[in-house]
Amino acid sequence: MTGTHDEDAAHPANGLDEVVHQRVRLGILTITHEARRVEFGYLRTQLELTAGNLSKHLSVLEEAGLIEVEKGYEGRRGRTWITLTALGAKALADEIGRLKKLIARVEDR
Amino acid sequence: MTGTHDEDAAHPANGLDEVVHQRVRLGILTITHEARRVEFGYLRTQLELTAGNLSKHLSVLEEAGLIEVEKGYEGRRGRTWITLTALGAKALADEIGRLKKLIARVEDR
């Protein structure tokens, strides 16, 4: 991550934040954005991940404050629910903005 | 990477290929697409990378057949030139297509 330089002068790829841009995490943010509150198993199916791999990426997003992870029960079964935070929604919007700039540069040629 | 499933049914984040999607590599492909043939030092400056980090990502792209790396001289100075291959141009176009699908899903909400 670079962060501090002049974004307009730099190549749009520099502005991409690995926390958000990474394929699986971008998927998690997109799905929680679509569904607001999603169950762990749903994310796992949608993104075709192992539980371990999904957990690892959820931790990165939770530590960055982009999602909230809530553990509870549905009947007797343990369930984990994931919600996008306001910061997460902002980070996803920023990523989309940068991707659009990058796409525009590719398509201008 | 998933690769074999029905792309239309799956979430667009599944179709993203880590070789191309990774932030630095997406930057390299975008810049070589813009400039056709670029010098190592130019890429390094544009993407604000150390030589070692850039080399590592160039190797991944070269092994995947997405770029060609050519070593030569400019006067007495060693130079490394990077060119996008036809396969690389195709891979970048595929990535852009998938990103657009993903952006459309985010913006539909």
Automatic annotation (TrEMBL), chains A, B:
Which InterPro entries does the record associate with it? WH-like_DNA-bd_sf (IPR036388), WH_DNA-bd_dom (IPR027395), WH_DNA-bd_sf (IPR036390)
**Residue ranges annotated for the Winged helix DNA-binding domain, each copy included:** 24-103
Do you know which Gene3D superfamilies this protein is assigned to? Answer: Winged helix-like DNA-binding domain superfamily/Winged helix DNA-binding domain
At the top level of its lineage, which domain of life is listed?
A: Bacteria
A Pfam family in this protein? HTH_34
Question: What is the protein name given in its UniProt record?
Answer: Transcriptional regulator
